[in-house]
From TrEMBL:
It is found in: Membrane. PROSITE patterns: ASP_PROTEASE. It is a multi-pass membrane protein. Residues 186-422 form the Glycosyltransferase 2-like domain. Keywords: Glycosyltransferase, Membrane, Transferase, Transmembrane, Transmembrane helix. The chain crosses the membrane at residues 15-35, 42-64, 369-386, 406-425, 437-461. One of its GO terms (biological process) is proteolysis. InterPro entries: Aspartic_peptidase_AS (IPR001969), Glyco_trans_2-like (IPR001173), Glycosyltr_2/OpgH_subfam (IPR050321), Nucleotide-diphossugar_trans (IPR029044). One of its GO terms (cellular component) is membrane. GO terms for molecular function: aspartic-type endopeptidase activity; glycosyltransferase activity. Signal peptide: none annotated. It comes from the Eukaryota. This is N-acetylglucosaminyltransferas-like protein.
Length: 476
């Protein structure tokens, strides 16, 4: 039996990252088994302090998110009291291109549903909005494509574009950015999203209220939390990220980021930056390039969109590996913002202050380094279990957390920080997340953190071997 050179190369590319990560865990665990007690104490202290820093930064972001959450609720209450009469008359609204980007073979079962939903349900003046369905496909899929291209006959504000020679989301977006559509703003949505009917209006009102705003990033909510246990965990995680961490970080560090979907851009800025097709997470790269030029990105919790979470572990694994490698790429490329000067700033008075620079350091460098610290702590605990195998739960508990007196305080403070963060998350949870889900997520969070760190390491290993396969997230 003969194997082609391409098949062998693919096999090596696929399995080398796994071997690197497995070797990392085995080597680290064995190393700790042979370290002296003094060395172990030093390592233990470093890892517990790191855990304390991560927990402390997380809870600070959570507390910082309270103000944006209250402001968002206040705005909604004011609009409701006025009979949902928005501040800006319809005739003075900005012209909006709303893009639904799809990879058709993977999303052929949902694209028609999402397109019709957007065309019929989004509450925005029809003469001010164009719903654009951008898709690419390596093969013809009929009768779906014919049905898609017939949509403009039923909906005058629809535009359907099959992007030629496209192999990625970046290609689809860049093709559209070459078109002169006359829009003031561009909204980007992945195909699995259901934007809230009022989301475009809330986003446009933010632009009109502050002319310095360049990007508005909305809140993404997982709607299929009941489909599987994994989906319920992801739903809690998304509430924590989009309703707490993102707005809190923007308040604390002074900058926000476009997150890939449910984001609104000034057309001129997006056309200037475009998307880099060489990046696995071209959306994060574009967000960081925008920030490097001093763009102002705000996180608006009222700009809500509902999306699907992976329901199986293989789908989750593929998605998060792509994100991990993409973040590693983006971090390596943009960590220079910690020390360099802004180039071609969008606003004349912009200067990157110390707070923003430290925020970049925390987001790009410390976050990537935390994968090693979390997994090293895991390996240290594994070495304890192997070398001093506990006979009961009490001994295991002591081995895992209370080897040294100082760790008791660091552990207790970290737990308090975690509980405070999840309490705040509970206050802003979506209608698809229950308190039971939050409690389960809290209990499993240490294991979820180790899994996330392992995926981060795997992403680094893929970057080392220049893994470049694009694995789209499975949609149903």
């Amino acid at each position: 039996m003969f194997f082609s050179t391409e098949a062998i190369s693919t096999f090596v590319s696929d399995w080398t990252p796994f071997c690197l990560v497995a070797s990392y865990f085995v080597f680290s665990t064995c190393l700790y088994m042979y370290c002296s007690e003094g060395s172990i104490a030093i390592f233990w202290f470093i890892y517990m302090c790191t855990n304390f820093y991560i927990a402390g930064a997380t809870v600070l972001e959570a507390f910082m998110s309270i103000t944006p959450c209250r402001e968002a609720r206040k705005v909604v209450n004011q609009a409701e009291e006025k009979g949902w009469l928005f501040p800006t008359p319809n005739g003075q609204l900005l012209v909006l291109d709303l893009l639904i980007v799809a990879y058709l073979p993977n999303e052929q079962d949902i694209i028609m549903d999402r397109a019709i939903y957007a065309l019929e349900q989004i509450d925005y003046p029809r003469d001010k909005i164009r719903i654009n369905i951008l898709y690419n496909t390596p093969k013809a899929i009929e009768p779906l494509q014919t049905e898609l291209h017939a949509l403009p006959e039923r909906y005058p504000h629809a535009r359907v574009i099959k992007v030629p020679n496209s192999t990625s989301k970046a290609d689809n977006l860049n093709y559209f950015l070459n078109l002169d559509t006359g829009s003031d703003l561009i909204a980007i949505y992945d195909c699995d999203h259901y934007p809230h009917p009022n989301s475009p209006r809330w986003a446009v009102e933010r632009f009109l209220a502050d002319t310095a705003t360049d990007i508005v990033q909305g809140r993404c909510v997982v709607l299929n939390s009941d489909d599987s246990f994994l989906a319920s965990l992801i739903a809690v995680e998304f509430d924590k990220i989009y309703a707490v961490s993102h707005p809190g970080r923007a308040t604390m560090w002074g900058f926000g980021l476009f997150c890939g979907s449910n984001g609104y851009w000034r057309t001129s800025l997006l056309r200037d930056l475009r998307m880099d097709g060489n990046m696995l997470t071209e959306d994060i790269d574009s967000a960081l390039r925008a920030f490097s030029r001093g763009s102002k990105t705000v996180h608006d919790l009222n700009v809500t969109s509902y999306e699907l979470a992976p329901t199986t572990f293989p789908a989750f694994w593929k998605q998060r590996l792509r994100w991990a490698q993409g973040w590693a790429q983006a971090s390596m490329k943009h960590v220079k913002m910690v020390y360099d000067k802004p180039l071609k700033p969008l606003h004349e008075d912009y200067s990157r202050d110390f707070t923003a620079r430290f925020g970049v350091l925390s987001l790009l460098l410390i976050r990537e380094a935390s994968y090693y610290l979390v997994t090293q702590y895991t390996c240290l605990v594994l070495s304890f279990i192997i070398a001093k195998f506990p006979r009961n739960g009490e001994q295991l508990w002591k081995l895992a957390y209370f080897q040294y007196p100082v760790s008791q305080w660091l552990f207790i403070i970290s737990i308090i920080c975690l509980i405070a963060t999840l309490w705040i998350t509970n206050q802003v949870k979506s209608e698809f997340v229950s308190r039971k889900m939050i409690v389960i997520f809290s209990i499993l969070y240490p294991f979820y953190l180790v899994l996330s760190a392992t995926i981060g390491l795997y992403g680094h290993a893929r970057q080392i071997v220049r893994y470049s396969s694009w694995n789209p997230t499975a949609r149903k």
